[in-house]
Amino acid sequence: MSKVAAALVVARTPLAIKQLLEERAVGYREVLDHPGLNPASKVQAVLLNDTAGTLMVMFAQSQLLDLNRLAHLIGRRMTAIAQSRLRELLDRHGVSQLPGFPSLMRSSCLYDEQLLQQPLLLITSGEPGLLLEVTREDFQRLLGIANSGRFGEPLSAVSLNLSLPDDDSAAISQAVQAFTARRIQQRLEATIELPPLAESVRKIMRLRVDPDVTIDEITSVVETDPALAAQVMSWASSSYYASTAKIRSVEDAIVRVLGVDLVINLALSLSLGKTLNLPVDHPQSSTPYWQQSIYTAAVIEGLTRSMPREKRPETGLAYLAGLLHNFGYLLLAHVFPPHFSLICRHLEVNPHVSHSAIEQHFLGVSREQMGAWLMRHWEMPDELATALRFQHYPDYTDAHAEYPNLVCMALGLLRNRGIGHGAYAPLPDALFERLGVSRDKAEDAVDKVLEAEVLLRELANTFSQA
């Protein structure tokens, strides 16, 4: 049994919730959350605020909360309450996450009337992974004088393109056209005005595909870019690599500590990252971009080592896929700056919904489509484009499947430890079988990464400051 599963088994209803239910004479049954539950019966609660006060909004997990539609309904433009303020409220009542009880939070409440179509409803208990099943009638009594309305967007209406990457260019063009109100030029790259790749990136790419690359060649490329040279020296001297050698030059850093393969992949990731700026805006409580990238790459490295030799992909390329897996996030912020904040606000109030579905709903294209298209546009390896495009598709089995499968597994394992966006979701057995990695070995790989969390954060900070 994994640590996550074990934690869910021992979860119990918090005392404050028990007392509230007893006071209202509401009967309930504890139910462990799992993917087989009907999302239309699962109540998603989110706390919003504006200058006028707070509001608890409740809707089914089969829906997406559209803040624009909500603003039109209530005449107030609201966003998710600050995480620091939410944490104060939760600590006050001894709960770990927002429970679906507006009276406990002393907040007014608005619920989607679609909820009342279900005879039984599953309410968040305040403990991760534990739901409370109540009847529709008891649910209405718990709501008290709450108002109702129709504001949820059915997730079934959000169609994701999971299997046709050749259609991505058309989808991106349509999304750009919808938000720029001007004719799409003949060449997509001219339309979205992407910056050209730096010469240092092109040189690194040439070295990456050269099986006979030498230390002198990679040293020469790194040394011609002062910022990159300083970064390589910083990595080699970091506590994470625990080198006892005194690093005096770029060549020392490569030969004594990092190795050619790691330097090429780190340098390529950093150089590509500098091509597009990190957005100033971001969802509350989100894992910082480079921290997420470093963690994912490190887990993939451990998973790759656990794979049977005959199934292992190119280790360096798999590591690079981890570093760049969320590159489409930067591209979305670059291409759709007026609407990127809208995406961030909706990620905050829809923790049960994938970012892909939210982006598809508002833009008509996802960051995975954008990132994969850019990798192809920049003539990166097909394996890399495939990894970015199908990273959230655990059933992908076509060409280069081991790369997106590894990214998918790493992201899922980290998400189940609270790192990254999205709710707990078990990974399918077929994914582990396809890669030849047992669940225990996969969890061990994550344990080793999290044991070095402080050191990895230091390494991620060097990327952020570059």
UniProtKB/TrEMBL annotation:
Pfam families: HDOD (PF08668), tRNA_edit (PF04073). Residues 194-394 form the HDOD domain. The keyword Transferase applies. Keywords: Kinase, Transferase. It comes from the Bacteria. The keyword Kinase applies. This is Histidine kinase. InterPro entries: HDOD, RNase_Y/CdgJ, UCP036888_HDGYP-like, YbaK/aa-tRNA-synt-asso_dom_sf, YbaK/aa-tRNA-synth-assoc-dom. One of its GO terms (molecular function) is kinase activity. PANTHER family: PTHR33525, RIBONUCLEASE Y.
